[in-house]
Amino acid sequence: MKALQGVEGHVEWVEAPSPTCDVGQVRIQVAAAGLNRADLLQCAGLYPPPPGASDVLGLECSGVISEVGAGSSWQVGDRVCALLAGGGMAQEVVVDARHVLPVPEGLSLAEAAALPEVYSTAWLNLFQLAALKPGEKVLLHAGASGVGSAAIQLCKAFGSPCWVSVGSADRLDYCEDLGAQGGVVRTDGIESLSDFGPFDVILDPVGGNYAATNLKLLARDGRWVLIGLMGGRAAQLDLAQVLAKRVQLLGSTLRSRDEQFKADLLSDLGQQVWPLFGEGRLSPQLAKTFAIKDAQMAFAELATNQISGKLVLVIDDSLA
Hints:
The chain is of the alpha/beta class and 320 residues long. The chain contains ten helices and 15 strands.
């Protein structure tokens, strides 16, 4: 099969071994794969796959099941999308059958490829780890990103008002159109978010240079969920505020979680979130698609940090 691999900072569509399909797994003929910042980091040599995971790029994909291992209820021909630890940017991928969800009603396979990673991340961190309750106020940094786009819609659907920090006025408009109450452009200073706070939950892919302000913006019993380090890994904090506010700082990664954890997460997502696509309350925010031959252009565009929503690579345009 052909697969996309990161080689010295760029991507190459190369021949790779076809994986075997064992008990409890399914083989997917890949139609499309979502592009995430983790793919940029892996391509740059900064985020290697977990032990045992494929070194092929791609943490999510969509396609059609072409083989079913023993013990799975999926059928050959089912249209699905999948959460992966790697391997999605290839002509085919083998995955634990429990990490697969049906393509939501009314969506194309290209649209479905934009769902698993960002909705899993938003649901895990806001609703499972931070235990977000209706009416609690949420701050989403990088609100126009793929995860931010999913998180805004989930907050709206489950009754929690949210605000964002973003990189431009256009991106702020985008977030408000999705359901955010408002927010700030980061070049104007995130300190002005205090006008909308305090916040019960902060979803933070930035870290470092936002840390001290996050602590000031949190409400008593606030939960700060750290999911990335775009702003650096070092921070100086006033620990007296942590004590006084009873703040919980939660570090969270998804890719390295074990198979059962991901199976439970996808089961919850399928029950609680997936029906909302059919009801029109959630939608994939597919900004742009690229043919696999243009993968390097897609990676370069994501690296600009100017994308609102998701980029998707089309692997097989006869399916997508």
